[in-house]
Amino acid sequence: MAEYINIKGQNIEVVASDPANPTFGQIWYNSTSNTLKGQIFQAAAWASGGTMNTARFFSGGTGTQTENLVAGGSTSSPAGTGITGATEEYDGTSWTTSGPLNTARYYPEVVGTQTAGLAFGGSAPPKSAAEEYDGSTWTSVTSMPAAQTQMAGLGIQTAALAIGGALPEPGFSTVVLEYDGTNWTSGGSLGQASYNGGGAGTQTAGLYFGGQNPPISPALTTTYHYDGSTWSPSGALNTGRHSMGESGIQTAALAYGGSGPSGLTTATEEYNGSTWTSVSSLATARQTTGSRQGTTSAALAAGNYGPGITGITEEWSGAAPATKTITAS
């Protein structure tokens, strides 16, 4: 059997602490921890996280993997019963209950961060109410021009978008609204009426994908870019879906879970600004709330329906270099 020195041209180095910038394939012995370690390239994967205190579905969520915010939803089936305003914060390990929404609702759209959030719209019946979150308390602010539900949202508390959605009467919307921290104004209309789509990015560099419009498709694959005034089509999802988790920006996003043509899906896709690529799947197929301010290397899927009402959380780690302890197993 070939020895390490013959493969790498050097012996295994003994060090008191791990190298600051190890190279791929490098192996060393840490004399402080008495462990043999090596630098590998770790594949992207989902792993279990802390369970939410209030299991719910059709909730709204935003933030990052280690600073996430979830609010609203329904705690019993069918939707429209057990409507809650419950709010929880995630620290990367566990969920903590915080101040509830003033207007309990399911399908609220939630954008921004854990300490500066914005919730708007929702059901039931469809609502126009908007609220801002400061890290502990929700405060009512200027309502949307009209009641609307099942929208996509993106952006931050002072520069947000509300995209598409379902109207109080039967019908689906192309309406886009911009929020500046005080007022709602009209933005550029979406290219296709739909609801329950995914949103990521910023008010001037936005991304909308998937959704549903039953006369056309119960699970759309369409993707659109927004430049602050106009929407333009981009590459299609591989798995059409709605009510999914989302994370990232216009040029680097994730779509995961949701409902597809065959029902609930575990499918996860990564977007590079033009093309969606299938990557490692969720452990549990479900409609889920995401980490809108997260990245393609660190995202969160929290609670929702899959099947049954759940509070389970999964954490996403993108493909990246990693240090691994080498054991006999």
In short:
With 329 residues, the chain is mostly beta strands. It has 1 helix and 32 strands. A hairpin with a 4-residue loop joins strand 21 and strand 22 (231-234).
Explain the layout of strands and helices.
Blueprint: H1 4-8, E1 13-15, E2 27-30, E3 35-42, E4 45-48, E5 60-63, E6 68-71, E7 74-76, E8 81-83, E9 87-90, E10 95-98, E11 109-112, E12 117-120, E13 130-133, E14 138-141, E15 152-156, E16 159-163, E17 176-179, E18 184-186, E19 198-201, E20 206-209, E21 223-226, E22 231-234, E23 245-249, E24 252-256, E25 259-260, E26 263-264, E27 268-271, E28 276-279, E29 287-289, E30 298-305, E31 309-317, E32 320-326
Parallel strand pairs: 1-2
Antiparallel strand pairs: 2-3, 3-32, 4-31, 5-6, 6-9, 7-8, 9-10, 11-12, 12-13, 13-14, 15-16, 16-17, 17-18, 19-20, 20-21, 21-22, 23-24, 24-27, 25-26, 27-28, 29-30, 30-31
Query: Which class do the helix and strand fractions yield?
Result: mainly beta
Helix content estimate: under 10%
CATH superfamily of the largest domain: Kelch-type beta propeller
Could you describe the largest sheet, including whether it forms a barrel?
Answer: 4 strands, mixed
The overall average pLDDT, rounded, is 93
Reported by name, the CATH topology of the largest domain is Neuraminidase
The geometry reads as globular
Uncertain segments: none
Terminal residue distance:
19 Å
Beta fraction = 35-45%
CATH class of the largest domain: Mainly Beta
Provide the domain count.
Answer: 2
